[in-house]
Amino acid sequence: MGETFKAIQVSRDEEKNQSVDIVELVTDDLMEGDVLIEVEATTVNYKDGLAITGKSPVVRHWPMVPGVDLAGTVIECSSGAFKTGDKVLLNGFGVGETHWGAYAGRARLKSDWLISLPEGFTAKQAMGIGTAGYTAMLCVMALERNELTPDSGPIIVTGANGGVGTVAISILSKLGFDVIASTGRASEAGFLKELGASEIIDRNELSEPGRPLGKERWAGAVDAVGSHTLANLLAQTKYGGTVAACGLAQGFDLPATVMPFILRNVTLAGIDSVMAPKVLREEAWQRLARDLDVSKLDALTTEIGFDDIIRTATDIVDGKVRGRVIVDMKA
User: Fold this and answer.
1) Helices in 90-235 by DSSP H: which ranges?
2) Could you point out which of 21, 58, 119, 218 has its C-alpha 20 to 30 Å from the C-alpha of 183?
């Protein structure tokens, strides 16, 4: 049967009551794939929190090993895409939702889902960035594709204390943008300014129903919140601006009008980090290696061990986690 390893497994019974357990697995238990990986590091994303707590129907295959991000070492690969000992990185592709994910000592995956770990990053540093940071970079790239520059005006980042928000602030400030941070945690204002935000606003300014078109306040936005917040961002974006939408922490509805689009030429750019083409994933990670101040990662991250994953998943859904969480799977 081979060596056993620990895993977190989410199951549900015939009445659809969910349970979460720490189990022992062997390699033969894993789902199909052409590459076997020793998982060195992972992280706890908001989506992982939803999967473990069951507060949203993230899991679509039962039982499931959650964990949408991982970095590790290739044990074997039958496709020829990687060789034994290669360091690799995974974000998305339904892992932790429809295919067993990172919260186990080993993972068997499809090589098309993986990219090589960027030079200069350790497994832990990559997971300090994770899907949240990678998504933030995709958002920044979307703003740049629409020709926004620091001279265009300020960029607002919502959900500023979350994983996407903290990395987006750090990247944008390093690139020279004036960054406004929207947060519900006023006590974190000092932390957000250390990351590079020049102004802090209360999320309540944006979270309630607003006017179809408001005063022009920012050239662009990175939004992980959705709903009324996204509608208000659009209504207050300057002529020709761009809003990159990547999340739905407030809700998946969009109670907006067409007025920002047809009167101010505003662009709403949708950001998907789950199924992004490999060339885009590789570009985003190379940009992270270049444009993210790695020295700020320590301020953005908290490190935990395997045994702390379930507790942390609950905390992140309850809004108690700031920035990023690294899981050292060797601890």
Assistant:
1) 123-145, 163-174, 189-195, 204-207, 227-235
2) 58
Q: What pLDDT score was predicted for residue 162?
A: 86
pLDDT surpasses 90 at 321: no
Distances 276 to 97, 281, 318 between C-alpha atoms, Å: 16, 6, 29
Which DSSP category does 159 fall into? S
In which element (H, E) is residue 320 found? none
CB-count burial class (<10 Å; 0-12, 13-18, 19+) for 262: exposed
Q: In terms of DSSP bridges, do strands 69-77 and 106-109 run parallel, antiparallel, or are they unpaired?
A: unpaired
- The pLDDT of residue 319: 84
pLDDT of residue 65: 98
Contacts of 222 (CB under 8 A, 6+ apart): 136, 139, 140, 143, 155, 156, 157, 158, 164, 165, 168, 172, 244, 246
Q: Give the predicted TM-score (pTM) of the model.
A: 0.90
Angstrom distance (rounded) from CA 187 to CA 213: 31
Q: Which domains does the chain have, with CATH numbers?
A: 5-117+296-328 (3.90.180.10), 131-270 (3.40.50.720)
Does 3 score more than 90 pLDDT? no
What are the contacts of 282-285 at 24+ separation with CB within 8 A? 282/115, 283/141, 284/134, 284/137, 284/138, 284/141, 285/89, 285/115, 285/118, 285/134, 285/137
| Cα dihedral 105→109→111→113 (10° resolution) | -100
Element (H, E) at 64: none
pLDDT of 300 over the 80 cut: no
In this structure, what DSSP letter does residue 279 have?
Answer: H
